[in-house]
């Protein structure tokens, strides 16, 4: 049985995979299409994501409590009528909806996600093993969000142990250490990057992913993009393999395919303690450098950090 990693494009140095986020029940048009079983908007979005170059397509039904077991396989088949060569990510808290859809997937799928709570993983890990599916290992434990990288590590060991015993290998688990808003929990960004540094030793061969846009939740809309891009590069520098993101964002897609080495260098040099001469940078790159310092805690967060 093929693994998900075997059907994804090989990554060159500086590249990462993008999981398209826009087939989501919270989207007005897509949510309506799910409810009405209207295939046209769903297929149109899937075709856009393929054209933009996403590596996986996330199908997010939310809770889907009432009819998820019927809706998820229908959406999977609807997408695959027009795009059958991009792997799918099945994203819902309804376990039976995922179970019903897994046999419909034409390519190795991913389950998004399995929390580190026995009530969830005891039901979901055997299902992932049965169908040979990868899964997103969400570092959300019985007490909620881990306080630091050590608590994240302890949760990961618990989930990894159960998964390995079920026959699931490390490279079928996509670890999500959870991104939190920088304007509320600034130290958590550092904790997540520290955790990513620990990941290869704790879980050799593991994959990784995250919803990077959570870093800018609650930030004014005009400032969110620069934070999202900055943290994407910062996490990639610490080994993050993939990001759940908007494929319509050209900078994200360029970064994913190694086309913006200028952004990568400016942010990485700043992280490594060799900040570039600001006077030599474009305004765009200056914004990324300033945002790097905010996320690192070197600059106090405020809505005017780019103006300082």
TrEMBL record:
* One Pfam family cited in the UniProt record for this chain: Pterin_bind
| Recorded GO MF terms | methionine synthase activity
Q: Which domain of life is it from?
A: Bacteria
GO cellular component term of the entry, any:
cytosol
A biological-process GO annotation: pteridine-containing compound metabolic process
> Which residue intervals define the domain Pterin-binding in the entry?
16-268
Which keywords does the record carry? Answer: Methyltransferase, Transferase
Tell me the Gene3D superfamilies matching this sequence.
Answer: Dihydropteroate synthase-like (3.20.20.20)
Family listed: Belongs to the vitamin-B12 dependent methionine synthase family.
UniProt protein name:
Dihydropteroate synthase DHPS
- The record lists the organism as Desulfococcus multivorans DSM 2059
